[in-house]
Amino acid sequence: MQWSPFLFILMGQSFFFTCHLYVYHFIGENKTWDEAQKYCRENYTDLATVSNMTDMERLRKSTETLTEAWIGLHSYPGKDNRRWYWSLPGLEFNDNQTRWNSGEPNDYRGQENCVLIHELSNQNQNWSDFPCNTNHQFFCYSETKQFNKSFHLISSMMTWPQAQRYCRENHTDLVSGLDQLDDKEFKTAIMSEDHLWIGVFRDTWRWSDGTNFSFRNWEYVEDLVDGQSDKKCATTVLNRAGKWSSADCNEKKPFFCYDDKLILINESKTWVEALNYCREKHYDLVSITNLDEQRWIQERVKKASTEFVWLGLRYTCTLDFWFWVSDEVVSYTNWASGVESDDCDMSAVMERGGRNQWFKKPDNETFNFICSKD
């Protein structure tokens, strides 16, 4: 059966769309971390991946049990196995875009996995790695739904994890990303300050499903810093507000799995061919309605074999607007600058690299695509 891209508009039909791109499942059986991982991969997608506080709340609400349970975070210790991350979820750290002071990072005081910004009077914003359990002032960043941004100097002395928790509970996060560090308001605010925590950290923790999410929700600073014990697997402690802790992977605990409602199709097809494929074999071409969904989907897009990946977003010349084929409202967009202008026979793609922004491409070009599953 051939689908008309405009059929649901012209006939006034409404299609059901999955509320979430992934679903959490609490498994009450006690298993080791490896056993839990195997169970999740055989019955769902994988052990639970948590990408932000919204995910954390969804995971907590998926069970009424107040216990300690495995999640899909595992540590692979080793000095050379650490990766740098931005604290703000969804912001990817680029090793080629840093502000390290000469000779940094250097682990001068032992394990130095968090970052201070200093030498601020000359606006150089030089970075130094520093032990996460030392106390310093810091800057928080806030962003409202109206995209109003503001920076807040917190004069209280805190460890890096304490500073991160404070910013997340009272603002948005620790100041993160070069765009924020280069903001005029931030540069003005830091002129008389020195040695402040910023939202950069590194660790050896990796997600079971291979995603690169930087979100961490540790309760204790020791879990952020590489430890020398056998506690290399992460748990969420539900009776302590869902904060995370580390444990011996051989201990037996209940666990959380997740079931992914997306599938990347590594075949090159035109937009209409991709639409037909998704509707015949799965549910529909994927829709993106908020930033959380953008972050989750872009992790899948990174594994594509083509430079761009089709989305379920198309422009109709007949009715003169962009629409999601799933009938979702176009309330969130991530267009690259200057490409969202209207053209006939165009559909939206997400770039595999860069900032995973959206571009418009002629419908007859061929790319990989992502289907949503019912």
From TrEMBL:
> Superkingdom of this entry's organism?
Eukaryota
Listed SMART domains:
CLECT
Q: What is this protein called?
A: C-type lectin domain-containing protein
Q: Which residues form the C-type lectin domain?
A: 24-141, 136-258, 258-372
Please name the Gene3D superfamilies in this protein's record: Mannose-Binding Protein A, subunit A (3.10.100.10)
